[in-house]
Amino acid sequence: MSEYKNLTAKQMADGVKCGELSAVELTKEAINLAKTEGKELNAFITICEEKALKQAAAVDALVKKGTSSPSQPLAGVPVAIKDNISYTDYATTCASHILDGYIPPYDATCVKNLIDAGAIIIGKTNMDEFAMGSSNENSFYGPVKNPVNHELVPGGSSGGSTAAVAQKIVPIAFGSETGGSVRQPAALCGVFGLKPTYGGISRYGLVAFASSTDQIAPLARTAEDIALAYQVAAGRDENDSTSVTFDHPLYSEKLATDKKFKIGIPKEYFAEGLNDEVKQIVEEAIKLLEKNGHTFKEISLPMTNRAIAVYYIITSAEASSNLARFDGVKYGLREAGDKDLTTMYSTTRDSGFGAEVKRRIMLGTYVLSAGYYEAYYRKASKVRELIRLDFEKAFNEVDLIISPTSPTPAFKLGEKIDDPLTMYLSDIYTASASLAGNPGISVPFGKTKDGLPIGVQFLAPWFNELSLFQISNILQKSAS
């Protein structure tokens, strides 16, 4: 199917539903690409071939009977999911040795929604171990390569899902966001990446890293496709008490708008540490939007310089608690099983967890310990509220906020892996919105002189994803 890579998810679904395209043929093409180009990028941990072909055959059978309907907006569309999202019959490893062989007994709600919408799950993608990382080098299964240049990182932690979309193996993939794990790789690989409002997509079936910021999040190559992906996945779920009841519109059908947005430019996001080419390209996006009638205003988010410290204190604390369940008893790996219980715990966790995961567990345990809880965790929680109030105040003045997504373009594999503090700063423009729960999107716009993609980030008030999709569509069409 020579035209496969040029088709959007919307075009695939429309073609399948009218009988012009076959879900089985689309699925075979996606699986073949995952096995070849995906293998070269190390983007996939598991290919779900048998189940995917059965799903595709079922979709084609519905079309043949004339019973396909708009209720299947992703009919026959191949989709990949990050390997921390539960999917029955296949391992969910979180790219960690400690979950070797673990097969979840249920589907994540997001997966169920995708299958109900006609999507075909073709594989589980590589990631930073337990979603901890900004480069996808922390995987037990090895690093993912950036499709633009195989010597560069794709970003993380959702590097496999992002690479699969950027390489056109699938038109849509799902990753997870805790502090930038979809938006940052989206920027480094040149695709769209959405962090929904906290509670917009159910977390049921997502293996927990930091429960107060974790979110399942979509990636796509067009504004229409990412809107379509979100509208399928979003919604209240009784299995997740943090999911929110909200009247989600048909986002993909409401992209066209005559509205002129008032957009804030946070001065703190254009300060020291921002790559010159990244800054120039974001400024070009601002000029282009101004020509289209949108207005801009300088704003201040004064707690920005506290965000990284607050983020790593809070998320590491939550990780140390969430990852305590992986001890060799119920899930995956078990070492020294014939020795005493304490030895089995320590040996399993030492062998099963990688260096970055151990670092964050130790940091989290420390900030929660007696004598340090007040000084670190409680103080960080208070500053987190100040960060949220920064955004609340800003959105009383503007409709959206614009900024770079990442302070730099994609960097070389191995360049920052031994310098965790420098690596953590890759999330400097994404962590604040994660702490506040606001939605954000990275929109591909422009390239450096070396041809590396750059992402422009837009942030919005809670549950205003529609404005994010609309401004993304405007920028995409204006730049084309």
Q: Can you walk me through this structure?
A:
The chain has 480 residues and is α/β, with parallel strands linked by helices. The chain has one domain (1-480): Alpha-Beta Complex (Amidase signature (AS) enzymes), CATH 3.90.1300. Helix content is 39%, strand content 13%. It is built from 15 helices and eleven strands. Strands 1-3-2-4-6-5-10-11-9-7-8 form an eleven-stranded mixed β-sheet, sandwiched between helices. Strand 2 (78-82), helix 4 (109-116) and strand 3 form a beta-alpha-beta unit. Helix 2 (23-41) runs antiparallel to helix 3 (49-65). The relative contact order is 0.13.
Q: Sketch the major β-sheet.
A: 11 strands, mixed
Low confidence ranges: none
Structural class: alpha/beta
Kindly report how far apart the N and C termini lie: 26 Å
Strand content: 5-15%
Strand order of the largest sheet: 1-3-2-4-6-5-10-11-9-7-8
Helical content (DSSP H or I, runs of 4+):
25-40%
Mean pLDDT: 96
What radius of gyration results from the CA coordinates?
21 Å
